[in-house]
Amino acid sequence: MPPLMISKFGNYVRIVPLKLEELPSHPVFDPPLPRRRSSRGRMSNDSRHNPGPPRKTTQIVNGSEASTLDAYGRPNLLPFIKAVLEQAVTFVDEILPATFKPVSKKLAPPAKAKVQLLKLEITSTELREIPWFDPKVPREMPDDIADIGETWFARKSLHENCAEKGTALFSEFDYGLRIDHPQHERDYTPNVIDAWKVLSWNIPENPAEEGPVFKDYQNVSMSSMYKVRSYVRELTTTDPRSLRDVSQASIPNGNQINIKSLAHAFYSNGRNVQEGNSSLKRKKPVLGVYTSIERCVLTASNEVEWTMATASDAKGWLPLWTQKAGVPGAITKDVGFLMNWIEEKRKQKGP
Fold first, then answer.
1. Which terminus of the chain has a smaller tally of CB atoms within 10 A, N or C?
2. Where are the alpha helices (DSSP H) in 247-319?
3. pTM score over 0.90
4. CA gap 79, 307 in Å, rounded
5. Lowest-confidence range among 48-52, 192-196, 303-307?
């Protein structure tokens, strides 16, 4: 792969599990900074009184200091989310068309549109050349990078923008794919047994008001979801300001992130074994890793272009080569599943 293209690969939309300190701060794992009285008698937060070792809050970029981390040494929330979304956009707009190889075209009944399948193999050598310590949102290169490669599968489909069987309005795609995505995916995908929200981050309703960092986005959300297809993932969704583009990116939280101690966790801490409301939900899950990028765009010709790319490892007893063989068929079926679910939702509403 050309070095210029490798340099465009993001450091967060990867299958390599995130470490806890690579996530933005959250009250669950970062207690509020102690308050101290300032010289003017006002109360203020002061990281100097926070227990534990001091953490770096700046780094040198082009010879000058730039604030990238908060008082806990974690990435700031809005720059973190924007970096993930920008990496996803670059992946879809530049990396996918330049590097993925077409595999086949398939039908996904009841969807009218044909689904184009594509594939990309990224070697461990290429992964080492990715700019892991991105000045915007730094991340350490994993120690076991030599043992890691990524197999990506992608699909593209073009749909009529109308409320008819086998296709959907852009607003219906928005509802199914961006709004409450994990819960909706659970509803329309037969092999997703459950979706459990472990954490969510408070984001301003209109992030653009927080400054220029988010001027192009609105309706942004970020949460940590546990899906009982054995995936824990970080989900970032956005509805860009043009209202013509619905995007989301998922980055993996694997076994390097310990969420067993979180009271609201359910599957990762074993509560599901006793409290699950079905035999399937009472089974002990295997923690896999998963990353995906999904985007819908309303094109100039008034068609909905749906693009999805994913890399995963379900772990457990199933060999990776066997998993890879099943991915193209599975992601193709997802197109039909969504169309069928949307049609059922229309029937529930009635004429």
1. C
2. 271-275
3. no
4. 24
5. 48-52
* Residue 322: count of CB within 10 angstroms of its CB: 10
Euclidean distance between CA atoms 35 and 49, whole angstroms: 8
Q: Nearest 10 degrees: CA dihedral of 302, 293, 331, 265?
A: -130
Q: Where are the beta strands (DSSP E) in the chain?
A: 35-37, 43-45, 58-61, 64-67, 101-107, 114-122, 150-160, 195-200, 217-227, 231-240, 245-252, 289-298, 303-313
Q: Return mean pLDDT, the chain.
A: 75
Asked if residues 225 and 195 have their Cβ atoms less than 8 Å apart, the reply is yes
**250-288 b/e with 16+ CB inside 10 Å = b?**
bbbbbeebebeebeebbbbbeebeeebeeeebeeebebb
User: Measured between alpha carbons, how far is 77 from 201 in angstroms, rounded to an integer?
Assistant: 8
Residue corresponding to tokens 């594939």: 119
What is the C-alpha to C-alpha distance for residues 196 and 188, in angstroms, rounded to an integer?
16
Instruction: State how far the alpha carbon of 176 is from the alpha carbons of 184, 311, 337, in Å.
Output: 6, 21, 11
**Length of the chain in terms of residues written:** 351
Count of other CB atoms within 10 angstroms of residue 165: 13
Query: To which H or E segment does residue 88 belong?
Result: helix 77-90
Least confident of 183-187, 249-253, 339-343: 249-253
Residue-wise pLDDT tens digits, 230-260: 333 445 566 654 445 555 555 554 434 556 6
- For residue 351, give the DSSP letter: -
Give the CA dihedral 148, 150, 151, 154, nearest 10 degrees: 160
Cα–Cα distance list, 85 to 2, 79, 204, 231, 261 (Å): 23, 10, 17, 20, 29
334: amino acid identity, one letter: D
Whether the Cβ atoms of residue 293 and residue 311 lie closer than 8 Å to each other: no
- Residue 63 exposure: Cα atoms within 13 Å on the Cβ side: 0
Q: Are 71 and 47 in contact (CB under 8 A)?
A: yes
